[in-house]
Amino acid sequence: MAGVSVTLFVAITELILSSNLFLMFLVIAAVRSLAVLTTFINHVRMFNAVRAHRNQVQDVALSNQQRVTILRREKKVAYHIMILIAASLVRLAPSLSIKAFQSSFNEQYRYLFPWTLSFAFINASVNPIINFWWNNELRNAIKTLVSC
Q1: For the segment 64-105, what is each residue's pLDDT rounded down to a tens digit?
Q2: Which residue range(s) make up the domain with 49?
Q3: CA dist list (Å): 117 to 3, 15, 85, 93
Q4: Which helix (H) or strand (E) holds 67?
Q5: How far apart are CA 93 and CA 112, in angstroms?
Q6: How many independent structural domains does the chain possess?
Q7: With a threshold of 0.70, does the pTM exceed it?
């Protein structure tokens, strides 16, 4: 969904602002930066929510074994969030960098930009795959759903 809205915005912006390349670059860079920043902020907020939950759980008297289990789960979630953030940044970096140097490499830009934009669209479809790979409960639920 986000990839489609960014694409439509980029296409409309390029049509309207094609005469002023610098203004077009600023608008597109701002929108893409906002998309990356929003993703990053959401993942950080999820991480903070997990930590707050951990603190609430620690306030309740738990055995050492339960605390170890909770800590292991939190480490797994933190690692998962870092993987998602890194994967998103890696998939969005080519499109952002080629757009930044559009005026310098105009001939190459015509050929490379559609490929880098497609790579950025893959971002929307890769996150469910990563989540499916990491979450055993989700995987088992999908297996039972498909097997019916």
Answers
A1: 777 788 788 888 888 888 887 887 788 778 877 777 777 777
A2: 2-147
A3: 9, 17, 18, 10
A4: helix 64-100
A5: 13
A6: 1
A7: no
